[in-house]
Amino acid sequence: MSLTASGRRDWQEVEVAADTPSKGSLFMPGGQRSHRRERFPSDVEGDRYQQLRSRFESSVDLGDPPRDKSDIGSRKAPTHLQLGDFLGRGQFFAVYRALNLNTGHSVAVKRISLDNLEKEEVNQLAREVDLVMKLSHPCILKYEGMARDNDALSIVQEYAENGTLHQALKAFGKLNERVVATCVIKVLEGLHYLHSNDVVHCNLKAANILTTKSGHVKLSDFGFSLHIRALERGNSEFVGALNWTAPEIIELKRASPKSDIWSLACTVVELLTGRPPYANINDGASLMSRIVEDDMPPFPDNCSLLLEDFLKQCFNKDPTKRASAELLRQHEWLKKDWGAHHDDRQDDSHVLLRPDAVQLVAQPDAAETCPPCISVSSPPSLNTEIPFRGHSFVKTTFRLFSQPMVCRGCSLDIKKSAVLCEQCGFILHSKCARKASPTCDLRARLLPYADPCREASTQLTQWQRIFEAQTKEQIAACPDMDDELIMNSSSESAKINVYAHLLLFLSDSTQDTRLRVALGSVATFVTSLDPVWSFVQSAQVRIQLLRISSILSISDGEQLRTVVAKDESALGMLLHRILGTEREKKRLLGLKEESAQCAIDVIQDILDKNLLYDVADASIDSETLITKARRLLVKLSEASDTLPASLFIRGILQVDKEATFGGAFGDIYRASYKGRHVALKRMRVHVFQRNSDWHKLRRRLCREALLWQRLQNPFVLPFTGIDTESFPSFLCLVSPWMKHGTILKHLAENGNANVEQKLSEIAKGLLYLHSQDVVHGDLRGSNILVDDNWQVRLADFGLAGFSDATVGTQTSHRGGSVRWMSPELHWPQSCGLDSFRRTFASDAYSFACVCLELSQGKPPFFEIKEDMAVVLRVLAKERPARPEDHVSDSMWGIMQQCWAHDPAQRRSMAWVVEMMQETMSI
């Protein structure tokens, strides 16, 4: 990777040449040759390369350390290497292949330039190489030695024939989840080993994950010293790695094993999409700001729910709350994909077990089986007596296997023959068998397949401990709620326990005492929460319980779906009771940050699934209940500057460079989404602004998005979602692209034909909005679009609000188009009102003005230049003159009824639609 003169980054990683056939490779078909470059860099060609080679061969070594340990980088020793072909280069180094003349094996030599490095920096790097040389693990690239000449430090390491995962991406394109999960399993094994030895990788990405010809995955390039110094100097090499860098490192805090977990998640995104997170941001400063400011990087499109959960555990902004490598190795996403990759799992020898061992796996102890009414795969009992004895090795061959077998001792491929333990299935080279553990522990070999109930109880217990701590932290972060964790048991709302049916179902599905105790503990804690907090935390409880059902292999049964449906209905009833209690509503509106996001997502999910239709009672009908829930959602969203996660979309492409239209609060750009043209309304809300205007615009955006996303009508512009990626630091509302533009443009291009038909469609769209208790607030010709079928679509609900003033969600914004505004919006007291408020009646007045605008092709009072003069005439009860030969008598009568001075005397849109239908049918 390099930084161009303009400051834009060039996405070119180091390319490593390889002419070795990749037979048996995870990424290469058998016999196919790599197409990576096989050339020397221009600055070492010809004589200069020969001089470099001679100088290297006279100095490189793998022997004893120097006597003076303060100058560890100057060692000399007898082991001799012969430098071979050039493989590639990075910002600080060049990589060559070399031949170890003592063993005949190929190795890789990384020569790090000493230019601009102080002596102590070189020694520090050398000490770190000394450290990693002591590491030994199948998933860690082996470092074999180090030497120094006048201008470079040479590091000798294991040679990985297939190059990096980044090169695999370039050769084969983005990978699917199954292949990525297989790689991640190995990466996590390597990270767990590193972290257990107090080593932080600090530079994890696809370009630093190597693969061998047998498909083994190995971590390389522990570049801590160079990259920390690069950050301090503003070096472009570190800028190139920013996309994978954890926010705490950008803030110059201390790196930790959890920093590697963030980088791992970025690498997963890179492998699935072909590009790392924020690859579309070219400016380093903007990139760092996004990493630090965003809740988490964007996820790949169409990723599974299990993968989303995996990424969320890795992308926690708080390093202390990030999952560890050890915990992530047990994640359901990885376990799901392991089933399809037995050949890649080192401990998987089930197919080679003796017949009696296979029988033990297939026939569990009756005491561990589940009730016959539940379809659960029965686990074998760990209480069965399995004798501890020595290995029983027999010599055998593996020529018939399509995939190369791996020696469990040295992790190298088995060429032809090896020894196999008939009892535990251990496969080893003959020489490695002499060093193997003398004990044949069949119990340990069966453990991965033995007891899903134990796994479920362990995972549930660990989750509950974290869940309780996080819940108490969230309660403490909302001091305005005046919370107590334990509610009075006599409270009627407290009787509704979230996901009680699912907890009972899981408990009845197992006879395992440990799992039942763990489930009971979860139920006890959830019951202790008050109605608001149990509602807030319900989604986390659901996710974890469904994970447990997956472990028990009952995640897709009809009984599970039935109990989940009952719990969802109970959750709707809990929201019903919260809405009916002013104290609980007030407490819910006091939620902050993550807690507010959880509540918003749950409310949105309840509305999406229409759960409130089933819980309405005699005291309130379902429509009123749904309206109250929507109002609560809008108020909570505005108060917390938060929107439901389901509203955000990813994958916007081909955004125009220039805006097609512009308004007071946003600009319209054309783009592409899922193969169709869409319009992006870029709100002028920059994420780094923190003044009062910013908060007002954010609240306005939240209101508009929540009002718009639930509206579905042939005469209302559809809502597609919210985009945050196309314009970093800005929010965009996305809707289908209307190529015919506004109704004014359409009529002008078509000779003002069928004006009354279009007015009828506008009236029907406005009637639908009013039926949903939504006031448009800014109805005029430029906010009415025409779709591909030449049908009108009402748009731009920027000033929209609920009609009921008592809920506090109606707009009080006094903006808008003066010539279309009713007199009470100019001066409420002139119409006997106490305050400014948009209503259905003010929309009716605007509709009458739109009728005039479309009929004459000009705005109301077009002959008057000054808006203030128009306001004075409207307040004086004057109305525009009737245009000659443009408006029918019936239409003019409707307009006069709609723009009456007294709002109470204006006709409703239901009456307008009925009158227009009668007129058009004559």
From TrEMBL:
SMART domains: C1. This is Non-specific serine/threonine protein kinase. Keywords: ATP-binding, Kinase, Metal-binding, Nucleotide-binding, Transferase, Zinc. Residues 81-334, 654-920 form the Protein kinase domain. The keyword Chloroplast does not apply. GO terms for biological process: MAPK cascade. Transmembrane segments: none annotated. GO terms for molecular function: ATP binding; metal ion binding; protein kinase activity. Residues 390-440 form the Phorbol-ester/DAG-type domain. Residues 1-76 are annotated as: Disordered. InterPro entries: C1-like_sf, Kinase-like_dom_sf, MAP_kinase_kinase_kinase, PKC_DAG/PE, Prot_kinase_dom, Ser-Thr/Tyr_kinase_cat_dom, Tyr_kinase_AS. It comes from Mycena chlorophos. Residues 39-74 have a biased composition (Basic and acidic residues).
